[in-house]
Fold PGG domain-containing protein.
Amino acid sequence: MGAEEPEENVSHMDGSLYKAAVEGNIEVFNNKQGLQLESLKTPNHDNLLHVNLATHEIAAWLFNRVHSIFRSFVGLNVFFLVEYESFDPSLTNFITKIRGEKRPDFIEQILTKCPSLLLQTNAKGQTPLHVAARNGHSAIVKLLIRYCARARDGDLENLGMDQLNAVREMLRIRDQESNMALHEAARCGNVEVVKALLEFEDPDFPYSANKKQETPLYIAARKRGSGLLLTLLLDKFTSTAHGGPHGRTALHAAAMAGDAEAIRVILEKKGNLTKERDEDGHTPLHYAAHLGGRISVVEELLKRDVSAAYIGDKKRGMTPLLMAARQCYLATVSQILSLCPDCCEKVDNKGLNLLHYLAFRSTSSALRFSFCKIRGTQIVYGPLKNLMELGGAFGMTPQEVYKALRSEKHHEKQKQIKELLEEIENDQVAEEPVRPIRLPTISIESLEKTRDAHLVVAALIATVAFAAAITVPGGLKSEEGPEQGTPLLIDEAAFKAFVVANTMAFIFSVSALTTHFGVLDIIFSRLKFWSQTILHRTQAVSGLLGYATVAMNDQVAEEPVRPIRLPTISTASLEKKREGRLVVAGLIATVTFAAAITVPGGFKSEKGRRRALLFLFMR
């Protein structure tokens, strides 16, 4: 009875029956007389077995994860696998349930009542075996296979040809997506389920692909950590179909999963897959290079067949090395070069080499790949040195590309490079797009605004810190004596912490001011775009007040010290820059003057204050 069954022959389950099917409560079905079990269906045509086997429990997932951790501990492993059998029956049932292994009692008793449920399909064309395999119920898979043989008077130990064919017929039933139970088991990744399904299968049977062009071997390889599963499939069948969608192979799938163990297992049986290309001309090595984080996979593939490093794809002629450079995966680049040094001579269809793609990624250090440190050994690559002088697209060397992308001058070459980068970013490998290429987008005006804002903030912090230093919390001792003018809280730990924190705040803020006024100008003046935007200031200015004086003098100077051509600087931007520095200069002058007339500790008398002020101004 299939999914095409007329609606009038279907009896939808009521709430109590559905709940009983979910929980595996056979008593409910035993107590109800006259039930037509083969007619009880859900709107999706799931029968009682489908409903029971498709039920998921979060606890099952959690228990299985915890149990996998405990496997490394012998005592705990025994506890979870053996000792629980001696528990109270209700606890045993609970543990069995949360382990995700449906107790076979319910399934077996339902099949005894209605054997036709075994091969019934739901709206998706799936039998109970499909559902059990998809959810990893190994005990139920074995039971369904055993019941299929027993229903035809067979014995699993000595099956006749008729019984064996009956079992194989059930194993090969396809759903609407052309998935057999083995496809579902491979997707689940349960080794015990796969073992049960393969036990009675014909080694010469070609397990073909489903509608998505996925074979069981491809599906298993796509799942990370599937080495044992792949071994079972490859050992069972004499000629295992290995194809996948878009012309991929199981080796492509293992490279996508980043599973070096799966790569080794597949190559032991199918070593010729290293140079197999998908419909875009990509080999498994292309996948590993593009996706990144697969150093061990790259190593396994190249150790098997180094010639894969020289293969270019269909669209751009990109080799795996160029793809790794395009993604800026320098570890992968180093790994490929260490195993295949001369593959760096290969260029793409536009003549772009390894260093061009590294230049696109704004990695100046990567351009110095003439000397690469690999595994602690410094290796000099002669071919890489030569690449520095080779012009690719637009006749530009990698160094010229690097400089052009960072130039403030907008020229035709720069426009062509940016158009090429937009085209490159639209590429993808295995549905994984190229990583976005971030070009330098520094705005001179934005840098100036940011710096001026930093100056104001730093000056404010310095003001507050200095004011706090001369107006100490708690006041000062006023009694005459050796301790006169000493802070009252000097022995308190909190006061000491305040002094340290305040001193650090003052030092850091003054350092920030000093850096912004001087050091950054020196550093950035090495860059071409920055040297055209800064004014040369008088050097040898000492102290914070000296910097404030320079900032004020910049405002009134009629001529700069040296004539500077400013083709891209507007008067407005310079005015904003000077205004910001005037604010800082004013704040610094205020703090300095306040410090001069409000000395820490105070004065002995009013006469002493007047004498100090007179001394200050007479200087």
